[in-house]
Amino acid sequence: MDLQALLRHPGLLRARARVHETDDVTLREQVELARIPAPSFAEEARRERVRQRFQELGLEEVAADAAGNLLARLPGGSPAAPPVIFSAHLDTVFAADTDLTPRVEGERIHVPGITDNARGLAGLLALARVLAEARLRTSRPLLLAATVGEEGIGDLYGVKHLFREGSPHRGAAAFVSLDGSGVGRVVHRAIGSHRLRAVVRGPGGHSWADRGMASPVQAVAAAAAALRRVRPPAASAASLTVARIGGGTSINSIPAEAWLEVDLRADSPAPLARMAAEVHAALRAAVEEENRARLRGTPRLELETEVIGDRPSGETDPRSPLVRAALEITRALGERAELAASSTDANVPIALGIPAITIGAGGESGGVHTTGEWYENRGGPLGVERALLLAAALAGVEEE
């Protein structure tokens, strides 16, 4: 990448100027998208609005795939060449009935999802808009993807489908996810996760008449306590969280069922697999201990485990052309560049060996994933400008 030539390119200078001149449009679209409910697995209304904007901007081959991802291609590039993919996820962590009325306090806009990921989607639309207005075409295909199922319960459903076995997108030249705010961070390390739900079932009974029966709650409580002794390998970045626990029906009953959910995270596959094995062993041991303590002749407890989330881990080499371009462009815009790790749509292509990163789309934010989420447009245009320059560096640009 010849950064200086990129910065002097006449067409890109026009496009970069349009980023700042139309910043009010980007912010308006961000607020509009934030007001459309989009829980994971129920993103249709927001997807339809993005579809409408893609079509208005003159994008080609605008269509939803079998998973519900919305795909579109900017004019330019040979369809046979490996594409550069820019994406932003459609879904939020909030239920459909969440109040999404924006509230403005000073420079801050408060509304759930205004940053994660209405900002990323607005950045994706702005990228398409300024390329069109500056009459630029890319040298290689530039594919835009508004993905579904990125958030927790979605388990990267959309991007997993995008890169499923046999998909032509597995040959992508690069993948860049626009997610949230900020200008400096370049997420090149994918934090993987293994999430499981364990359910312990037994006969249940009356707390007095059936005393001595094995208790699912006691087994689950013992398992939760035992999981404190599961330690991540010293050389890795990893975590274990007992996230939720429940069971029982009344104060005077031996429960018939109890459950817990565990979230494991690590920056590489080996420690994640090791911790998962230890968690499963601890669960089995806790249930067996409760079974041994039960009154002789009474029914045994049964353990059932289900994997409810599985995100791959990995790293895009910081010396790769993609990461180096992102860092150099960030610095050229006068911002401090920072390599980072997170769990995003980029996890999947990273794990497949496809050059991939996640970057913010500008601005500042707080309270993400809470109903107090806010966004402030300080540095907002710079985030879009960074995405534009990175797209140009990866896909090339040509005057129409």
Counting DSSP E segments of at least 2 residues, the number of strands comes to: 21
The end-to-end span amounts to: 22 Å
The percent range for helix content is: 25-40%
Give the overall silhouette. elongated
Instruction: Return the domain count.
Output: 2
Relevant CATH superfamily of the largest domain: Zn peptidases
> Spans of 5+ residues with little confidence (pLDDT < 50)?
none
Major β-sheet annotation: 9 strands, mixed
Q: Give the class-level CATH name of the largest domain.
A: Alpha Beta
- The CATH topology of the largest domain is Aminopeptidase
By secondary-structure content and strand pairing, the structural class works out as alpha+beta
Q: Please give the radius of gyration in angstroms.
A: 24 Å
CATH architecture of the largest domain: 3-Layer(aba) Sandwich
Describe this structure in words.
- The chain has 400 residues and is α+β, with helices and mostly antiparallel strands.
- The chain folds into two domains: 3-191 and 313-399, Aminopeptidase (3-Layer(aba) Sandwich); 192-311, Alpha-Beta Plaits (2-Layer Sandwich), CATH 3.30.70.360.
- It has eleven helices and 21 strands.
- It has helices at 3-8, 10-21, 23-34, 44-56, 118-133, 157-162, 216-226, 269-293, 321-332, 347-351, 380-395, and strands at residues 60-64, 70-73, 84-89, 103-105, 108-110, 136-138, 142-147, 174-178, 185-190, 192-201, 205-206, 238-247, 253-254, 257-266, 302-311, 314-315, 338-342, 356-359, 364-366, 374-376, 397-399.
- The strands form five sheets. Strands 1, 2, 3, 7, 8, 9, 16, 17 and 18 form a nine-stranded mixed β-sheet that branches. A four-stranded antiparallel β-sheet has the order 4-5-20-19, with no helix packed on it.
- Strand 4 (103-105) and strand 5 form a beta hairpin.
- The longest helix has 25 residues, at 269-293.
- The two termini are 22 Å apart.
